[in-house]
Amino acid sequence: MTQYTFALMDTRVVAGPLRRFTADVFVGAGLAAADAAIVADALVWANLRGMDSHGVARVPGYVEWMRRGDINVKPHMLVSMEAPAVVLLDADRAAGPVAMTSAMHHAVRKAGEAGVGLVFVRATTHTAALGYYTLIAAREGMAGLAFAASTPLMAYHGARAPGVSTTPISIALPGGDRDPLLLDMSTSLIAMGKLVQARRTGEPLPEGAALDAEGRPTTDAKQAVTPLPVGGPKGSGLALMVECLTSLVLGNPIAAEVLEQTERGARHRQNCLALAIDVGRFGDPQMFDREARRLVRVLKALPRAAGVDEILMPGERGRRTFERRTREGIPLPASVVTELSKVADALGVTMLGA
Amino acid sequence: MTQYTFALMDTRVVAGPLRRFTADVFVGAGLAAADAAIVADALVWANLRGMDSHGVARVPGYVEWMRRGDINVKPHMLVSMEAPAVVLLDADRAAGPVAMTSAMHHAVRKAGEAGVGLVFVRATTHTAALGYYTLIAAREGMAGLAFAASTPLMAYHGARAPGVSTTPISIALPGGDRDPLLLDMSTSLIAMGKLVQARRTGEPLPEGAALDAEGRPTTDAKQAVTPLPVGGPKGSGLALMVECLTSLVLGNPIAAEVLEQTERGARHRQNCLALAIDVGRFGDPQMFDREARRLVRVLKALPRAAGVDEILMPGERGRRTFERRTREGIPLPASVVTELSKVADALGVTMLGA
What is this structure's pTM? Predict the structure, then answer.
């Protein structure tokens, strides 16, 4: 059995060993080695980008879903419909990163043939950070878009209870010699992960970000349970449309099943959409690069709001964090290390230093 | 010369004559009759739906753009690239509704052939309400999506000056025997049109909706000039990605040209994207209908927030307004009637009762 040692003194770990450790844990939970490597890479990528709520802190949850069978460790993923520009991928409850990576590769292939490629992913599971997949398209010189429909944790506008999912949306654009522009957002004002984090630290939440258990607006992180949609009807409207466009189109509803507390609703599920656009067919990629650099320069030179040091582009903070954490390691809270170590132990993977 | 009489006593006008009057004004400004009918229908549709900021109040502005040549009244629209699932439509500065209607029909045709159809519209002009076009797809049993990039009027997150456009986004889903679900939103917290309206009435704005001329946050409608993005970096990130995905991909940049105050930036322009998805290929349309009705029922039954009488679905308020205004007429403020009458007079179209 492989043993892993992490430099826990400063609670920073190097990405490579963390990735291999994470993959080994998933292999221990029953995943094929190739699939485990994809899931581990997606989670550690999120940590490197600073999205710790979508990183290895998810490992215990994923392992529990594998144990319960919500994540199928031996899925038979199937292209059950294909047309010139589209693919329907029946994911058979595969780990989200396995299904979504396959989906975006199909989308890129279709876009290469037809100009645009659209893939619906039916019955997948937690996708981690969507930017991981839209960047697959961007690295091929294409635009990538992805939506995911998940468990309804966010309030629907006008309601004081959850009704729709926080619904991640990601768009990436090719970078050429620049870095790709990468938008990766939820439709809630603050992400569920940040709400959970704030609950731990007790840091007050912004106005309009959350409801308490009684459904009353609150800025007290300790009382906050339900995130609110960004822009009221806009955020919850987008979330509803994504549930309809994926889950309902694919005949695999999530929100209604959970809200009606059916047996099916008790299982963790997601449905997703991956879209790639072969943007090089519509204009000169070099001109795009030049104009993107120009637009970034112009926006960054705008007069700044009070207290703002720098105007940032979508994905810029994440890229900087990625570079820093690649050099300096990923900071892991002791609680996460303890959890990981416990889960690993139970699967016969030993983490030294924990 | 045709003369039009509107019932001005109660400042309500019937849609049919208003549509014909509006079309006649555009014919007077040089538009072909068929194109004028499309533009008039799109504007009056917005009025019927209650989106008065995108209705006939725009006629004087459109006529002025036609006079200046920003809107080309005799455009040679050209499909300059076509692949199995995509079309590039060079709109030659056509009136937005003419270009976008054509674009969505191309998208629906492509989706019928390939599963998904994507159309980029290069160098079009003000598109009015995007929902008008996404509904074209929904009526064909398809999902419709549309984005538009326009003049940068909205603050980019962190800046105290405009940097990106308020960027409309629309998604429509087929209705079967229900009404289509229709999301039609801007990426600003409140739309520019509502900001202008509030400036007139003096009604206070919500926190975080606008900046004053100095770039300071304000809730005073009289002082508000620059709308703020919904969710800070989320709204302005979406807007930036739409400018890149349309204007920069198509080599027809808008934001940077306006912000750098170039000659090209002084001309009104838009670039758009229309997408249709043949959702019936991915699942049973009858099950979709059934599940959509179920989800709507479940969401409407959620416990309501304080002060909320009813939980509304995307497009529901607009549909009700449409039905009411179809029956009872479209309320037009006297100032709009006066403006319309003035523009009409100058073009040899007479509006009686004004």
Answer: 0.95
